[in-house]
Task: inverse folding
């Protein structure tokens, strides 16, 4: 089970297929990072991929029956149930002797960190053979931007008008604690990094988890053309760390590999001020965010030594 | 052999060659899944057992499996069934022919592990075919028939079948198995649901359907659940032929001919109702029993026919819908166009004996003779 | 009759999304260096690349998000008001 054209070589901009598995004219917002990432992700995964999508923006982005933008099989399921549904799908495919397919959950942060965390944990503990991709737009965007446990400190949402007080939940860290064979972070602004992480994930059996930062124009309050820039600033300021953890060892990827030294990171304010959701953030909450980012860097750098 | 109701179900599911079993333990269902686990781990049954972390995930996994064309099974009870409920509706509204055993148990609070039918009845709107078993033999026979009914192309809807907690799930009775060859001939090769996950013909299942599309989807389910009545009877008839023993269809009538009072009952205590009918008949009181084997599709015509001509219809509900009444009582009332004497009994596992059924029958007759209208009576309530 | 909620892959599953936009991207091929960043980052897949590396846009479904113009290293794409 290897990448799309049966190649194990690194994906490059030129080598990614021109085949579109996510057809144009889907119902996502203009500038949506989630469909941006899914389009590239499917080029990396190839057509022998079934996507399991719980309630989230991606459910609605599929548009209305009897149409869908997807050229690969997609199974829509209930909010809490993507990992469990995927487990059942994998079991059935194995019983039918179909083993050369990718079973991939594509879920938002709500369906992963909150309502979906039980079934995700269950699948990971059982080691069910699936790839779980959480596209994290840091709130319940599909229902109009209410906070999730993945919303960062200080972010304004409709249920945290004065900015979220609680710490952003470290879901990749939770998945590492399950001791599954592959955990990685990604960002829609670094599509080749994402594609190559998928390429590596596909070659591993068991539960594989990728947490992808997915900037959201209406929810994060920035003009749609800035999606790629926002994601880049997340990484360049150190707010989002790109890494890959496998076999208990971590390595930084993309621009993050040069940012262990804090002085090389751009000031966090550059990332925050481009987004309206932080415009009225309490300074103490921004301090809390900075502290959390430092702690995450510390933990990841420690794991990189391992 | 001698087996409990729970074990009988496991033997049936094994004979039916279920392929994916996803289940979470709950008293009094545990022996079903434990026995199936044993069959699989010993290599006697070729299937995947997903030890899921909740009932909601159990049904989600079964649905996923069914969507790939696999034969999926789960079992639960009470709290587990209600926790699973979102996905129970997903299976029914999505036309996934999953089969599920429900060991009917009272709901909490307070905690109760004892028998009551309310749990299973809460799911009656979900688009599932629902069968209630009377005996260990029927539990085995029905479990095999369930897969055939579910996967029949005229149906393709999920099927649940119930066992009364303890009085059937944990009660040992004689059980005759059919041979694997007979089971294989009775059931088609595992086909599960419509194969909506198909790499040759990639589709998206279940994205948004607007108001201009939804009614036709639901209408299709309505037709197939309605038509399942015939499929249920065909399956019973065919199973009767291969097993050499009679099978009940939608409604089982026992000594209803010329009856003055008919007890309408569901599940394991039907046996006691029949014993009461025999005893009363010996006393000269003409009592009959109409056992509802199938709750969905509700066999209105059969019930109407069964109770025709009697003076008193006594429906015994081991369930309740607060603010309304006994659930079976209401559905029978709707079918026969008259309010029966609706006995609410055996709630929370309170004993319902032959003597109780005799008492109920006599009570119904005397009320009918006194010219009373049909009404609700809580039987055996203290104070 | 069986009616199941099963959908098939089509362009325009969300409608004629080209009608959503206020501005449209216009590629100046004289400036284009064929780096294909626009092709990579278009969320919709409406930027196409040809055998000679040239790019063009399928306007029927372009939502006018402006990402292609932003990421273009050669500033070869301009967002032009339509409405």
Result:
């Amino acid at each position: 089970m290897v990448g799309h054209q049966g190649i194990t070589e690194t994906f490059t901009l030129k080598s990614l297929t021109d085949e579109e598995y996510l057809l144009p004219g889907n119902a996502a917002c203009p500038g949506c990072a989630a469909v941006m990432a899914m389009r590239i992700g499917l080029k990396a995964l190839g057509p022998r991929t079934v996507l399991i999508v719980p309630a989230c923006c991606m459910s609605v982005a599929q548009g209305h029956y009897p149409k869908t933008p997807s050229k690969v099989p997609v199974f829509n399921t209930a909010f809490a149930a993507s990992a469990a549904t995927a487990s059942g799908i994998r079991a059935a495919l194995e019983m039918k002797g179909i083993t050369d397919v990718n079973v991939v959950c594509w879920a938002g942060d709500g369906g992963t960190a909150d309502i979906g965390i039980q079934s995700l944990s269950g699948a990971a503990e059982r080691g069910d053979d699936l790839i779980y991709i959480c596209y994290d737009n840091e709130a319940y965007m599909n229902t109009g931007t209410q906070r999730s446990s993945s919303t960062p400190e200080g972010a304004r949402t409709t249920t945290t008008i004065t900015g979220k007080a609680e710490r952003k939940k470290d879901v990749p860290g939770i998945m590492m604690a399950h001791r599954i064979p592959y955990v990685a972070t990604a960002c829609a602004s670094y599509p080749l990094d994402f594609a190559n992480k998928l390429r590596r994930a596909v070659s591993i059996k068991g539960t594989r988890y990728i947490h992808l930062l997915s900037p959201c124009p209406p929810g994060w309050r920035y003009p749609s053309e800035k999606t790629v820039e926002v994601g880049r600033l997340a990484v360049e300021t150190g707010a989002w760390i790109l890494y890959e953890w496998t076999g208990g060892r971590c390595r930084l990827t993309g621009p993050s590999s040069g940012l262990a030294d804090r002085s090389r990171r751009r000031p966090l304010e550059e990332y925050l001020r481009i987004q309206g959701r932080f415009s009225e953030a309490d300074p103490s909450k921004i301090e809390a965010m900075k502290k959390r980012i430092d702690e995450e860097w510390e933990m990841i750098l420690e794991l990189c030594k391992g | 052999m001698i087996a409990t109701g729970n074990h009988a179900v496991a033997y049936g599911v094994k004979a039916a060659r279920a392929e994916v079993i996803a289940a979470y333990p709950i008293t009094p269902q545990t022996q079903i899944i434990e026995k199936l686990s044993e069959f699989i781990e010993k290599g006697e049954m070729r299937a995947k057992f997903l030890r899921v972390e909740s009932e909601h995930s159990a049904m989600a996994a079964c649905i996923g499996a069914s969507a790939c064309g696999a034969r999926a099974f789960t079992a639960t009870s009470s709290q587990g069934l209600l926790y699973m409920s979102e996905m129970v509706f997903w299976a029914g509204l999505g036309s996934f022919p999953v089969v599920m055993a429900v060991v009917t148990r009272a709901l909490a609070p307070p905690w109760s592990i004892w028998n009551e039918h309310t749990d299973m009845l809460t799911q009656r709107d979900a688009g599932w075919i629902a069968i209630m078993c009377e005996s260990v033999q029927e539990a085995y026979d029905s479990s095999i028939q369930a897969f055939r009914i579910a996967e029949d192309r005229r149906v393709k809807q999920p099927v649940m079948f119930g066992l009364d907690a303890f009085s059937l799930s944990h009660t040992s009775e004689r059980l005759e198995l059919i041979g694997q060859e007979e089971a294989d001939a009775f059931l088609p090769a595992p086909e599960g649901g419509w194969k909506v996950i198909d790499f040759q013909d990639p589709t998206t299942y279940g994205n948004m359907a607007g108001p201009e599309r939804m009614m036709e989807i639901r209408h299709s389910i309505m037709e197939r659940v309605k038509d399942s009545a015939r499929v249920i009877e065909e399956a019973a008839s065919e199973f009767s032929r291969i097993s050499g023993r009679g099978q009940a269809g939608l409604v089982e009538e026992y000594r209803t001919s010329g009856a003055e009072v008919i007890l309408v009952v569901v599940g394991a205590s039907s046996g006691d109702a029949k014993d009461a009918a025999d005893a009363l008949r010996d006393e000269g009181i003409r009592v009959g029993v109409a056992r509802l084997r199938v709750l969905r599709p509700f066999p209105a015509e059969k019930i109407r026919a069964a109770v025709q001509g009697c003076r008193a219809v006594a429906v015994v509900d081991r369930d309740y819908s607060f603010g309304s009444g006994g659930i079976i009582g209401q559905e029978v009332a709707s079918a026969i166009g008259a309010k029966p004497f609706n006995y609410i009994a055996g709630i929370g596992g309170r004993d319902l004996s032959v003597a109780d059924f005799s008492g109920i029958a006599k009570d119904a007759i005397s009320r009918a003779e006194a010219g009373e209208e049909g009404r609700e009576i809580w039987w055996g309530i203290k104070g | 009759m069986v009616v199941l909620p099963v959908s098939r892959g089509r362009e325009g599953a969300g409608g004629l999304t080209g009608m959503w936009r206020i501005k449209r991207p216009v590629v100046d091929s004289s400036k284009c260096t064929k780096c294909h960043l626009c092709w990579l980052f278009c969320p919709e897949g409406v930027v196409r690349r040809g055998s000679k590396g040239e790019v063009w846009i399928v306007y029927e479904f372009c939502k006018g998000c402006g990402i292609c113009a932003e990421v273009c290293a050669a500033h070869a794409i301009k967002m032009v008001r339509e409405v």
